[in-house]
Automatic annotation (TrEMBL):
Annotated HTH cro/C1-type domain residues: 34-81
CDD domains to which the protein is assigned, alphabetical: HTH_XRE
Pfam families xrefs: HTH_31 (PF13560), MLTR_LBD (PF17765)
Name this protein carries in UniProt: Helix-turn-helix transcriptional regulator
Lineage, uppermost ranks: Bacteria, Bacillati, Actinomycetota, Actinomycetes, Mycobacteriales
Gene3D superfamilies: 3.30.450.180, lambda repressor-like DNA-binding domains
Length: 278
């Protein structure tokens, strides 16, 4: 995260809108893509000079009324509005943001209990950096043939997707998954600007040309549900829906709904029946 993250977001969002999106005549020649600064300023009821100061980082303390007006002018959806408000809260106050990184390496016992209770449905928990911090036996059995648990380190979903050559053959909808993880890390970077481990993870991932091409610092539209289309070494081609449950501000519990995949393909047996020791 740069010190002018708020300004970067405003500039990027303004460039992404077309005149016709806000009821202005389309067509014509424009020096830059998107809306002009003056057009956004008029819609928000602020001066173009003030908007320029925000975009250039010369002013980083907009009032709540200004935030609401700019959100409306830029057609932000609820998730984008939340992200924008978070950037405004952090702007100029990075030194006051929490630096605690311990939450990304530990899992509360309550969440461990939830993972066990979800069996035989595969489930796992992720932290800020998309590290997989814990999982149940059903998920371990399902992903072991995919190579996700190879090595001595705890797996990282983004690292596997972009850095492991096997991921391209395992994930048949690789581009969708790659975009999803980029957006997830972007949201985390906005929330935890002083988490050095998170910053280092993103910096290392940017050595991947695919990650670097997809990386947008303020891309926030990552859905909490979707589907993985897998080429599973044991089950063959299978589509597994997933749901992400926000356990707390640090942890997400991800559930792979393999029972739905089996309904779609009754001959598949993705996970064994509930084991007594689970």
């Amino acid at each position: 995260m740069t010190r002018n993250a708020l300004g970067e977001f405003l500039t990027a969002r303004r460039a992404a809108l077309r005149p016709e999106d806000v009821g202005l005549p389309g067509g014509g020649r424009r020096r830059t893509p998107g809306l002009r600064r003056e057009e956004v300023a008029v819609r928000a009821g602020v001066s173009a000079d003030y908007l320029a100061r925000l975009e250039q980082g010369r002013d980083n303390n907009p009032s709540l009324a200004v935030l609401e007006a700019l959100s409306s002018a830029l057609l932000l959806n609820p998730e984008e509005h939340h992200h924008f408000s978070l950037l405004a809260m952090v702007a100029g106050n990075e030194s006051r943001c929490p630096r605690d990184q311990s939450a990304d390496i530990t899992v509360p016992e309550t969440i461990e209990t939830v993972l066990r209770a979800l069996a035989p449905t595969p489930a796992f928990v992720t932290g800020r950096r998309l590290n997989v911090l814990g999982w149940n036996h059903a998920w371990e059995r399902f992903v072991t043939p995919l190579g996700l648990l190879d090595g001595d380190q705890r797996p990282n979903l983004a690292w596997y997707t972009f850095m492991d050559p096997a991921a391209r053959s395992v994930l048949r909808n690789w581009p969708e998954v790659a975009d999803f993880f980029c957006a997830t890390l972007s949201r985390a970077a906005a929330r935890w600007p002083r988490d050095n481990a998170l910053t280092e993870t993103i910096d290392m991932l940017r050595h991947s040309p695919e990650f670097d091409r997809r990386w947008q610092p303020h891309r926030v539209s990552a859905p909490l549900s979707g589907s993985l289309r897998l080429e599973h070494p044991v089950a063959g081609q299978v589509e597994v829906p997933f749901e992400t449950l926000r356990a707390d501000h640090d942890h997400n519990v991800v559930v792979w709904l393999t029972d739905q995949a089996q309904i779609q393909a009754p001959n598949l047996r993705l996970v064994p029946d509930r084991a007594v020791n689970e």
